[in-house]
Amino acid sequence: MKRLLLVGAGHAHAQVLKDWIAAPVPGVDLIVVSPSALAPYSGMVPGWLAGSYRYEDICIDIEVLAAAAGAHFIEGVLASLDPEQHRAHLVGGMVLEYDVLSLNVGSTLNPPTVEGTHVLPLRPLGGLRLAWEALLAEMAPAPQRPLAITAVGGGAAGVESLLAVLKRLRVQQPNRELSATLVGRSATLLPSLPRAAAKSAQAALARAGVELRLGSDFAAGDASASDVLLWAAGAEAHAWQRASGLAVGTSGYIRIDPHLRSLSHPHVHAVGDCAEWAEPLPKAGVYAVRMGPVLSRNLRAALGVGLPQAYLPQRRVLALLATADDSAIACWGPATLRGRWVWRLKDRIDRNFLQRFALSPAPRGGGELTRRTSA
Ligand SMILES: Cc1cc2nc3c(=O)[nH]c(=O)nc-3n(C[C@H](O)[C@H](O)[C@H](O)COP(=O)(O)OP(=O)(O)OC[C@H]3O[C@@H](n4cnc5c(N)ncnc54)[C@H](O)[C@@H]3O)c2cc1C
């Protein structure tokens, strides 16, 4: 019996599980490790922050998918890897052996801890949920003093999330005075998108009363002057990636070949934000999504079924940014459009994506997990 271990419930692994339900590989023990049964879909996170969706509505139920695929689901977090010995060590001490490993663990952020300030880190999303729900609960009976919000990060996630947070807080406490500042290191907003998109986003931020501080680094004084610090800057590789012995790039992301395999350890596959392709790709979910079907096929090839396929990144991606006013901005190459219909389009695309993975809960499959596992 061979063992395939999937660590992280990112976009590509959801596709691998979906394919496994349709066509499992006989004689393979499939294990999925994820910190939580529900894996949030980041494209809908701003909509959830704004109060347009419930948390459950923006998640893929990985445990249900795993059960339908006959896989073992382990609620856990990878702590370290020993790729020479084919071993994965989880937080808490469990050790999992594998024949083929796939990593789809995303990236992380490193926000400061600030005494007396609510820090909302946009990664990990499970942590964001806890911090956001705690803030909303604490705010409900709060005295009506002004509230200062600082968002750090002038990219799409920072802009969308700040607008969403402001919308939700204004609905919850309509009489409360809110002030908001967005701090970005780059001299322009949305530096990776066309200028017209940046102008639209700037107009949306101005309507929401946000002061912009671009070309500026976050300073300690910003934190102490803020009641809420929304942290969307500086995606980083998980620290254990550097220590794993896998070949990594200068930023700690796992270097992969066109077949999505580690350059140093070909039995290890890595996809999405945690990986570094030959030419570094932007950290965006669309790449992880497109890697999914290729990964699915290549994991089968690694298990002796079929031939691997080379991944070719799309040259142009559709970027959709919600502005929390029932509108959104769309960018396709240099073209930029904005309007209510763009928000409706984004909502439909996002819901359809999640619908692909929606299954009714079924009896948990997978049997006993004993062989080659130790605690
Ligand atoms: C607010 C926000 C909005 C965004 N909107 C968009 C958008 O509209 N379009 C777009 O293309 N991109 C968007 N992005 C970027 C996008 O989120 C990422 O590029 C994308 O999620 C990466 O996908 P992934 O599959 O690599 O990893 P993720 O989706 O991050 O999934 C990784 C999974 O691995 C799990 N994990 C992490 N560490 C471990 C561990 N040690 N052990 C086990 N499991 C682990 C995590 O819990 C998570 O479930 C947005 C980002 C944010 C923060």
Oligomer: single chain
If helices are DSSP runs of H or I spanning 4 or more residues, what is the number of helices? 10
| Main sheet: strands, sense, barrel | 5 strands, parallel
Number of strands: 21
Categorize the overall geometry: globular
Using the coordinates shown, work out and report the CATH topology of the largest domain: FAD/NAD(P)-binding domain
Please give the alpha-carbon distance between the first and last residues: 21 Å
Please give the share of residues in helix. Answer: 25-40%
Per CATH, the superfamily of the largest domain is: FAD/NAD(P)-binding domain
Strand proportion, as a percent range, falls in 15-25%
**Main sheet: strand order:** 5-2-1-9-16
Q: Which residues form runs of ≥5 with pLDDT under 50?
A: 363-368
- Which architecture name of the largest domain does CATH use? 3-Layer(bba) Sandwich
Number of domains: 2
Question: What hetero molecules are bound to the protein chains?
Answer: flavin-adenine dinucleotide
**Class by alpha and beta content:** alpha/beta
- Give me the Rg, rounded: 21 Å
Mean pLDDT: 92
What is the highest CATH level, the class of the largest domain? Answer: Alpha Beta
Report on the architecture of this protein.
With 375 residues, the chain is of the alpha/beta class. The chain folds into 2 domains: 2-108 and 236-315, FAD/NAD(P)-binding domain (3-Layer(bba) Sandwich); 118-231, FAD/NAD(P)-binding domain. The chain is 30% helix and 24% strand. The chain has helices at residues 11-22, 45-49, 62-68, 125-139, 156-172, 195-207, 220-224, 239-243, 285-302, 340-355, and strands at residues 2-7, 28-34, 38-40, 59-61, 72-75, 78-82, 87-90, 95-97, 100-103, 118-121, 147-152, 178-184, 210-214, 228-231, 254-255, 268-270, 275-276, 318-322, 328-332, 335-339, 373-374. The strands form 6 sheets. A 5-stranded parallel sheet has the order 5-2-1-9-16, covered by helices on one side. The protein has a 5-stranded parallel sheet with strand order 10-14-11-12-13. Strands 6-7-8-21 form a 4-stranded antiparallel sheet. A hairpin with a 4-residue loop joins β6 (78-82) and β7 (87-90). α1 runs parallel beside α3 (62-68) and α1 crosses α9. The longest helix is centred in the last third of the chain and has 18 residues, at 285-302.
